[in-house]
Amino acid sequence: MIIRDVEVFHVEAGWRPWSFIKVSTDKDIVGWSECTESNGSVFAIEAVVSSVSNYLIGKDPRDINKILSHLRFATRQSSGSVVAKAIGGIENALWDILAKDLNVPVYRLFGNSIREKIPLYWSHCGTSRARASDIVKKPKIASKSDVFTFAKEVLESGFKAIKTNIVLLGDNPVVYMPGFAKTQGYPELNCDSRLLTKIEEWIECLREGLGSEIDIALDLNYNFKPDGLIKIAKRLEKYNLAWLEIDSTNADALSYVKSKINIPITSCENLLGVHEFEPFFSKRAMDNISIDIIWNGFSESKKIADRADLFEMNIAPHNYNGHLSTFISLQLCSVVPNLKIAEIDVDDVPWRDELFTNIPIIENGNYILGNQIGWGTDLNEDSLLKYKWNPK
What would the pLDDT profile of 174-225 be if each residue is shown by its tens digit? Predict the structure, then answer.
């Protein structure tokens, strides 16, 4: 078997695009992966895939270790960032091919599953309805009464945990995101008293609406410096949060924050390769590890999870994209012992299910692991073209 072609597809997904890699072979076995990176690097990842595709053509896709070694050595002067994400996407497509060739799910290649039922949290809970209710076709969240109405829906969903972002309620609600230059507040990333009060208002409403039995996590992303993070944590301590999610590339700074607060920290979703995680492990800068499997590739993600296990840390994988990302991420969750919980978006574009041959099975807030070969789903190419992303 040899690789005949490598293609990248970009799909319209409302407020961002989703990206997918297709690796075709001469044996009519096709490998799919998701490589979504919608914060400014969409075409950069595609360019990397295109630049290395000449090496891939004619190679046996089952020689995954050999191919990965070559790609990482050949690109080592530009390691990390979009290069690593592109290689991770290629790798995951190759695992799909190998598993399909052997007629097994990918998780069988890593020693089979530990668990068949995987607990999930509802990610961007309330966030999507505040910023894009017209796109997801769900009621808008703008006021406290909207939050309480929404909370009833969450309670009926069966999910036992949610994660939200900072929503500033009002006639025109804002999802506060200066860390990605999406709102005011950058580059200073300060937290003043007015903003602190608005953040507390949001969390207080969710806690009141959801009661004490639902875990609530708050994602602070890259939005604040350590002093602001500490202020927020102290203000929200009484709401019994499951964790604060904090993005950081500075293990010392994150470790300092951790030493000053009484809420667990989840971090590292934007790190690439076990070497980038290492300082965070050695300084015990967080309580839970977030790994992005579609960016790191499955085998590297497994190494990171194994390293976390040595430090008695559990993983909560980063997964906020299309269904293929979910199938890939949840297969990792099935083979590692140290799982905290898995991430999934509930609210999304209405055509999401059209893009995939299978969709995740979710029962009472749990993902049910299937036994379909490969990742468990392929892409509908007619739908990929129907919803092709056309950047303006």
Answer: 999 999 999 999 999 999 999 999 999 999 999 999 999 999 999 999 999 9
Q: What is the pLDDT of residues 146-158, one digit of tens each?
A: 999 999 999 999 9
Cα distance between residue 251 and residue 273, in whole Å:
15
pTM of the model: 0.96
CB 322 within 8 A of CB 345: no
